[in-house]
Amino acid sequence: MIAMRAIMFLHQLTGVVMNRGYRFGQRRVQQSVALAALLLGMLFTTVLDAQPVRPEIPKLSLTGREGGYNPSFYPDGRLWVPAAVGNQPRYILVPVFIKNCWVTAGGYQARPIYSIRFKFQYDSSAFRAVGVQTRGPVYSGTHPNVRLDGFDVPTIADGWQISWNDAPDTTYQTFYEPLIPITNNRLRGRRVNVVMQSSTPLPLTGDPTVQDCNGFDYMPLCYIKLEVKGRPGLLESDVSPLAIPPDSIYYNTLDVINESPFPGDVNYPIQGRINKDRYLAGIRYQRTGIEPAAVNDVEVGMIYAHIYNPGRFDFLPQPTGLDPNEIAVVNVNNGDSLFAISRVVYLDPVLQGQAQARVRVNVTLKPDGVRAKNIIVESDQPWLLFQGVSAGGPFKQLNPTGVVRRATLGYIDRNILGPPNGIGFPDAVNNNQPNIPDPLLNLDIVCDPNAVGFDDPNIQDPNEFAGKYEGYITFRSEDVEISPVRLRVTFLYIRVPDETYNGVSTVWAPRGIELKIRNSAPTPQQTRLLFGTGLRATVNADSLFGEFAYQTPPNNAQFYARFFPINSTDGSQDNGLGDFTGIFSSRDIRNIYDDTTIVYRVRFSAGGALNYPVVVTWDPRSFPDGAQLFLRDIEGGQIFSVDMRNATPNPDGTMSYTIRDAQVTAFDIEYTPARAVRQTMNAKGWNLVSLPVRPSDNFYSVVFPNLQGVTPIKFSQDIYQQEERLKVGVGYFVRFPNPDTTIISGVLVKQINSRLFPVRVYDGWNTVGALSVPVSVDRITFEPATLGGTPPIRVPLTFVYEYQTNRGYRAVSELTPGKGYWIKVRGQGFYNLSAPTTRGNAPSDELSTLLQSAAELSILDAAHRNGVLYVTDLRPSELIGEMPPLPPVGTFDVRFATNTLIATDANPVVRIHGAEYPLTLRLAKSTHAYTILDATTGTELGKLLPGASATINDPNVTAVRLLRQTPAEIGYSLHVTPNPVETTGLVRFTVPETSVATVDIYDALGQRVRQLYSGTVTPGETTLELNTAELPAGTYVVKVSSGIYTAVERITIVR
Fold it and tell me: What is the pTM of this model?
């Protein structure tokens, strides 16, 4: 702004007139005020230094750089072009760059540019012009990390109207080498005449408020589309110049070569063909002896095109050794279209301590002297990701640079660039030295098990996705002979064994049972083995559990130990079982539902008799509760038999057994897994349940064979959802036609978390399950949904609810096996519940005080289902007593209209769902009475007094309003005097209207012992004489019933 004001002030002072000048711009200065202009210029020298002094004629360039080239487009200043393959045409886009600093400045008016005309020359033996366009690929960065920013990026002239024509041009190359004879290269020359027009002006390529013209960029103006016709080895076509000749460049109607935008101004002389630097930019250097071509000099406005035979994508067949994750790649069909990594990518999520599996391959091209541009790398599976990484020194990065499924790359170069193996053409801007060679693309392949079930939101247990998966990473480029090329990746997501570690200060995690076997050599040797049980494991080598069968027998002269499964059918008993992860020398996982004792056979060699004794060590904290494990010799225990829970203890809590007999080279582990049986008792109708164990078959009709034809329903993400496969840790509504006792057998569940039994919880209410043992609600915790995220929390002061068929929702402090529960959370993540148990805590002090002092409103329906609500004058915290969503349709439920268990309003509304009529309302522990209204129509339905009940017969009444009153205000009362009574007393009661009344006395057993009155009473007080002489001393109840009114008073008879 300061600079602009300075210029305006200068214009006013000097009298500069900004008329619409000749074609392109004009300046007229009055000499009489030159001194004032000079003084003002000195005053604002600092401001104007960072701005254009005067407009600069736009410059065109094929290299995109003043005095050099744009390394993002041309890493060595040359255009390398792959030849066409067979009958398939090949096209290239040659960008024409422009620097536009044609800006009004320094007293010069620069009229906007609305049209551009120029020529583009090429060798017809190498190319054929097929079009001009304003969209194409754009690059950024420098070698070796050139980023492809887009394939179809608009230029600054996007939207301009373009016309072009192509014709022979015998001036080809003469502007740069005038001695070229007309019978040689000139006869092959052609030119594309390009005319561009628009109703909007050409944008500047910099910001004149903060930059001078030297700081302006060269940006793509358009792209010349050429078909590649030349072939390598044909001298006249494999290396040829492309050029913008200095004979026809127009902006608007100004011929910038032969005319001045400001005629007569010494700053804008006519340029002519000699001063090409004023309107063209690029490289200028001597090429003699450097490249095989007729033209020796490189000039501005030129770029050399080199045509070569296209290469192919390739992968290093063997690792470089720079990274331990590198693996070899196999050319599957030797046709260079399908490759495969040489081994399975495996992940044991617990034992390897990783969330993802990574391996590395090295991507290149073949043969030497080729390049591929505009590369797309893409995976076909959600779990298959990749990333370009460093292996020390320069490396190639993909765009984007993170772990992704799709990325692009500017180019891969195979020995065009740089010594010692490259073609190594001198670089004009690098002291005539070749550019550095292009490094390999070090590609990390990332297998993410969390994305295996990405397309199946109904399955959230990662263990459910354990298995072998196959995916492909595809490489594409139009510059290679074969595209696309696929790289096959096989991912093994190992199912973890079921056994869990139960050590102190250790998170429960599935990991199996580990054996350590050590010899007594001078330098002791040790190896690790893993065994256990798991879902769908077999006696054979199960890749699902990370097992493989060794192909060669062990060397008995060397130390080793392996599992040799007995009775296997795949030959794994011959050479033993291996471990894909390499963490263990052998692993053997068997079916968790085997009904008999499992025998694991271990064969070993100490490496010689002198290396005995051999020590076997294990950790009994890895043993499941109730499981029995014995270590015996393979002769059935004739030499040794050890209870593995009572072996030699070690200071670190592990146990050991020492084999001293050098004749013993094998032993068996006899493992009898713990099995659990749980009995669940469910009422007729709807029940909220969960799995008390993990059954072998979790299909709902197998677990609960007597259900009433309704698929179990869970509540998640604010909706009820049906689910046929029941999951541990999830609560389900199920319906039984009759009272039912179900026996469920399976594996004990002592912890629920994201690794064992993942249960996602979402913001709001969720139905969750319990463990195989009772636990306090205080054991409920949560994990974040994503690594590093924030875990959800229980909404403060909300209950954990169970659903009782004959009562509805009830707050609990303990979770019982087989029952389902409602919890409300804020945020989303994973539900955690763990044993051992502690005694359930009572509700919070505030809640306990509140319920003890609150009046109880019970609602009993004709099916004897009784819901209890609470009414209080106290003001609890806002969320206390909030109830879960309504249960399924037809399920008994009562709640206040505020969706709470507790009401503090004087006139609360009660909503009734799924009830059978008539309803009986009873009020206890209350000092108030209520008038009952139909909440919909306002019709009075009766009165409800403390200790009394009222009946609603109309099934259309599903919501009632209770209007608070005292019994006296309603007109009812009951008093017995004196109390205690010896022989005689009086019973006084009042009714508000004429009605039939009965007055009875009941003993402590609830037996009626006397009727004092039965008949009609009128409004007002009625007094009856009470004679107790014939009744034994004790406690009795006087009960008055009059219409809807029932009242009782306890009396004591004394002698």
Answer: 0.64
